Amino acid sequence: MQVISLNVDIISRKNGRSAVQMAAYCSRSKMYCEYTGKFYDYTNRKDLIYHDIMLPDYAPNTFKNSEVLWNNVEEKEKAKNSRLARTIIVALPKEFDHNTHIKMVRRYVQEFFINTGMCADISIHDKGDGNPHAHILLTTRSLDCNGEWMNKQRRNYLLDENGNKIRDPVSHQYKLGKSIKTNNWDDRERIEEWRKGWAEICLLWFRKYDIPKEITHISYARQGIDREPTIHLGAKVKALEERGSFTDRGKINRDIIARNREHDRKIFRQRVEKNRSNELERNR
């Protein structure tokens, strides 16, 4: 059973990254980032199939403009290590055309991200090299019913047995416990939920078009299959590999693929030998 390819990453200032830059890269457009004071231009890339912004009903209409949305995010985040956005990259089934890919991605994004309050910037890329994929850029901060950004965390005051705040006798401030997050999007269970959701969307369309293919979000290791997964290359490394430049990370994947093929051949030979032995036993 094939395992889906879905990678989740965080766009953080701590790593020198910009949400505006990532949005420009995904949408193959040119954008100006007010926070960095730089233009980011990816209009020379010609593999964009589809781009759109999907928003909750209470989000400002101006957020339908990708440059406005992500500059607004950059403006709201003040810290040098702010988590600006979450990015999800999903491989799209090669059995379907682009129109079907768009429908699949939009349904997935609506169900698992928009309905929980995120804003989503979606792009579909296809160079015609057998690797169609979608970039889903998501906000990390919730919006309130007025379309204003909420705090990522809220204070959690310690209470006495009567439900009253406890005041520290020294500082004369109310005692605080661990802050409570405004949303649960960082919970580890969410990634499992998102992976399972994409697998179910793919299966739904396979059944719709009577394609006899099975797909799962469960890794080979968790399935008990002795198969080595490839590593995520990242946009820069992938671009170098596509231009014919061999990289260390690319070599790791080529070696993994070669080992898996050899393992598959070995398993196949063992099955042939076993079937042959069983056939000889029956004919004796």
Give a description of the structure:
Strands 2-6-8-7-5 form a five-stranded antiparallel β-sheet, with helices on both faces. The protein has 284 residues and is of the alpha+beta class. The chain folds into three domains: 1-142 and 183-225, 2-Layer Sandwich (BirA Bifunctional Protein, domain 2), CATH 3.30.930; 150-182, no CATH class; 228-284, no CATH class. Helix content is 37%, strand content 18%. It has seven helices and eleven strands. The model has no long low-confidence stretch (mean pLDDT 85). The two termini are 36 Å apart.
Write a compact overview of the structure shown.
By secondary structure, this protein is α+β, with helices and mostly antiparallel strands. It has three domains: 185 residues, BirA Bifunctional Protein, domain 2, CATH 3.30.930; 33 residues, no CATH class; 57 residues, no CATH class. It contains seven helices and eleven strands.
Give the arrangement of secondary structure elements.
Elements: E1 2-3, E2 6-12, H1 19-27, E3 30-33, E4 38-41, E5 48-54, H2 66-76, E6 83-91, H3 98-112, E7 120-125, E8 133-139, E9 153-154, E10 180-181, H4 188-208, E11 215-216, H5 220-223, H6 235-242, H7 248-283
Parallel strand pairs: 1-11
Antiparallel strand pairs: 2-6, 3-4, 5-7, 6-8, 7-8, 9-10
Helix pairs in contact: 1-2, 3-4
Please report the distance between the alpha carbons of the first and last residues: 36 Å
Largest sheet: 5 strands, antiparallel
CATH topology of the largest domain: BirA Bifunctional Protein, domain 2
> Can you write the helix and strand succession as a string?
EEHEEEHEHEEEEHEHHH
Query: What is the CATH class designation of the largest domain?
Result: Alpha Beta
State the low-pLDDT regions, or none: none
Oligomer: single chain
The overall pLDDT average reads 85
Q: In the CATH classification, which architecture of the largest domain applies?
A: 2-Layer Sandwich
